[in-house]
Amino acid sequence: MHALKPFALSACLLALPGLASASALTVYSAGPGALIEDLAADFSEETGIEVNVFQSTTGQVMARLESEQANPLADVVISASWDSAESLHEEGLLHEYRSPNAETVPDFLKTDHYVAQGVSALALVWNRNSDVPQPNDWSDLTDAAYHDQVTMPDPAQSGAAFELISGLLTAMGEDATWQLMADLADNGMLVPGPNARALNPVLQGAKSVVFGAVDYISLGQQAEGEAIEVIFPESGTVIAPRPMMILASTAMPDEAEQFVDFVLSEQGQARVAERYLMPSRSDIEALRPTIEELTLIEVDSDAMNAQREAILERFREATGS
User: Which residues belong to the signal peptide in this entry (predicted)?
Assistant: First the structure.
């Protein structure tokens, strides 16, 4: 089986430029790393404002914020979990700002304290060079043909995977959802950790299908000619908006607002589209299926988050992970 290029998951600190400069704007961002590099470099070129970037997983970004509570360093945060923005807002840690460039961002992707940088969706990712047939829906992966060939991100470590479980609970009900998880586990599904650890075995050919992959990484690989298919089940999927927010502790509120404005500009949103995310602005062309083209499951995130620990415990029980 042909091994595809693995997705690199690593924390990185980028100097853009003047890393040590106290006057530089500091942005903490979840991946993709190349996107925040481009946005920061473009912003610096246009405004002359230096940008320091810490790029990692959402979990590591949020852990770093928590560890720095006594002496916050970040000015702007971009997460891959809408829930993280809601939590920070509830704690009173966000600066109020609504960018004039957010006019064409749909209402459900913006508030007075945070706005979507872009949007991803959850999908099946199938290695075309595998020996298993192309799946079309979530439940297909319980078939014996997929025995020991499926991976799934751990919803305890991936906000997007938790959102998918929440969506399945909404669409299918509790009994059917936990039975599906148990059947997948009985069929040998592996739950190795966060998103990259679920995707890489499929890209490398060790496994054949990801259940609940964050789509933009694989869409980019597919566009480069890799032998994978990104499949959005007709029964429905969920989206994962990526909130962008300014911390209330920032000493550079004007510069932070300029950065948010830039990311929501035509140039900034074109950069988002280049990485196969859906631009948050509805008037910017996407290079992939958009919200209007997908069958979406509406999730009551507040209700699901209130049951988060119970849901994760049921998932662990059902999958033995």
Answer: 1-22
For residues 119 and 243, give the distance between their C-alpha atoms in angstroms, rounded to a whole number: 9
Other Cβ atoms within 10 Å of 271 Cβ, number: 23
Question: pTM to 2 decimals?
Answer: 0.87
Torsion sign across C-alpha atoms 107, 111, 116, 122: negative
Residue 18 is encoded by which pair of tokens?
Answer: 């003047």
Residues 6+ apart with CB under 8 A from 103: none
Distances (CA, A) of 72 to 26, 64, 134, 155, 249: 10, 9, 47, 28, 7
Q: Which residues pair with 77 in a beta bridge?
A: 28, 245
pLDDT averaged per 10 residues in sequence order, the chain, 321 residues: 41 43 87 93 97 92 94 96 92 98 97 98 98 98 98 92 95 97 98 93 96 94 94 96 97 98 98 98 96 94 90 97 85
Angle at 152 between CA 151 and CA 155, to 5 degrees: 160
Q: Do residues 276 and 287 touch, judged by C-beta distance below 8 A?
A: yes
